[in-house]
């Protein structure tokens, strides 16, 4: 089979929406299962859980909607004349599709945990719903970032694009595609722990709320680094790209993607454990908050190291 601009163009469009649809389907199924489980466990909270389900499931679906818009833009932009442009479009599809799938699955764990918390604390449902909405809003960020990167890559497309320049643009999309996985897993681990902790002990809500916002922002930081790096690659001097610079861009992509994976998941595990301990013994909140912050800062430094190496690779 011969690769043609048409084939890669339509593959990029189909791949983006397909990956997003898989993630949305799995996420909606996971959240729906948790909601049904909660409804049968505690009939008193059925009305509250129904409201939570409507809002939570709608937000899970938003990632697929963003991917749909990006796919329509790709299709209505027309078939590229060169295979180089088509390869760059593949980066857009991977970035948007992977980000949409990751946030849908991650967000589903928040909805499921929030539904279980409402089943345990039906009279505390309004605050649990508030936390769920804020958490899902933070989790949704990678899909928006991916859409922005996609538009940035599209702005650089032209018929004069060289194969090495297209690889650099493809790498910019891959940075986002890989970079969103770790933060999404970390957010799922952490926010599920927060909702479960509130369900176990509603009296720790005022302590956990600011603690959760700080740590959720820290988990998202590696993704922000990846987005900024992708912007640098997409707006770099792509016309002067060579085989060496293209390979350096791919190496930098791997460094950023894997760095984001370890950093975000590590922060998620540390912060989630603190949440459980605070729920069991609120008196240790101050000590655990300080210890967690110290651990998070040290874990975050690993992403900075990856960013430094990636920048050196890009700048050589």
CATH topology: Four Helix Bundle (Hemerythrin (Met), subunit A)
Q: What structural category arises from helix and sheet content?
A: mainly alpha
CA-atom Rg in angstroms = 21 Å
Beta content comes to under 5%
Number of helix segments?
10
Compressed to H and E, one letter per element, the order equals HHHHHHHHHH
CATH superfamily: lithium bound rotor ring of v- atpase
Number of domains: 1
Q: N- to C-terminal separation?
A: 36 Å
What's a quick, concise take on this entry?
By secondary structure, this protein is mainly α.
Overview of this protein structure:
The structure is a single chain. With 316 residues, this protein is an all-alpha fold. The chain has one domain (5-315): Up-down Bundle (Four Helix Bundle (Hemerythrin (Met), subunit A)), CATH 1.20.120.610. The protein is built from ten helices and no strands. The protein has helices spanning 5-41, 46-76, 83-120, 125-139, 141-155, 163-179, 181-200, 205-234, 243-280, 285-315. The radius of gyration is 21 Å and the shape is flat. The mean pLDDT is 89.
In terms of topology, how is this protein built?
Layout: H1 5-41, H2 46-76, H3 83-120, H4 125-139, H5 141-155, H6 163-179, H7 181-200, H8 205-234, H9 243-280, H10 285-315
Helix pairs in contact: 1-2, 1-3, 2-3, 2-4, 2-5, 3-4, 3-5, 3-6, 3-7, 4-7, 4-8, 5-6, 5-8, 6-8, 6-9, 7-8, 7-9, 8-9, 8-10, 9-10
Descriptors:
single chain, 316 residues, mainly alpha, Four Helix Bundle (Hemerythrin (Met), subunit A), flat
């Amino acid at each position: 089979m011969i690769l043609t601009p048409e084939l890669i163009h339509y593959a990029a469009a189909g791949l983006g929406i397909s990956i997003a649809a898989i993630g949305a389907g799995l996420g909606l199924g996971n959240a729906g299962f948790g909601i049904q489980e909660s409804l049968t466990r505690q009939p008193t909270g059925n009305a509250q859980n129904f409201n939570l389900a409507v809002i939570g499931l709608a937000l899970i679906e938003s990632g697929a909607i963003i991917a749909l818009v990006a796919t329509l833009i790709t299709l209505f932009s027309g078939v590229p004349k060169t295979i180089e442009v088509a390869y760059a479009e593949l980066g857009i599809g991977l970035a948007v599709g992977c980000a949409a799938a990751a946030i849908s699955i991650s967000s589903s764990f928040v909805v499921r945990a929030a539904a279980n918390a409402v089943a345990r604390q039906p009279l505390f449902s309004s605050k649990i719903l508030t936390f769920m909405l804020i958490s899902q809003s933070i989790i949704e960020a990678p899909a928006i970032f991916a859409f922005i990167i996609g538009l940035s890559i599209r702005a650089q497309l032209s018929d004069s694009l060289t194969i090495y320049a297209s690889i650099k643009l493809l790498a910019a999309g891959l940075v986002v595609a890989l970079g969103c996985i770790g933060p999404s897993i970390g957010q799922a681990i952490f926010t599920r722990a927060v909702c479960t902790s509130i369900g176990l002990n509603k009296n720790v809500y005022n302590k956990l709320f600011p603690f959760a916002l700080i740590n959720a922002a820290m988990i998202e930081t590696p993704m922000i680094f990846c987005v900024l790096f992708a912007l640098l690659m997409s707006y770099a001097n792509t016309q002067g790209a060579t085989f060496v610079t293209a390979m350096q861009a791919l190496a930098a992509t791997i460094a950023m993607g894997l760095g984001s994976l370890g950093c975000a998941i590590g922060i998620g595990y540390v912060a989630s454990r603190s949440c459980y301990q605070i729920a069991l013994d609120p008196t240790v909140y101050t000590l655990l908050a300080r210890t967690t912050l110290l651990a998070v800062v040290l874990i975050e430094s690993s992403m900075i190291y990856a960013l430094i190496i990636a920048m050196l690779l890009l700048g050589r």
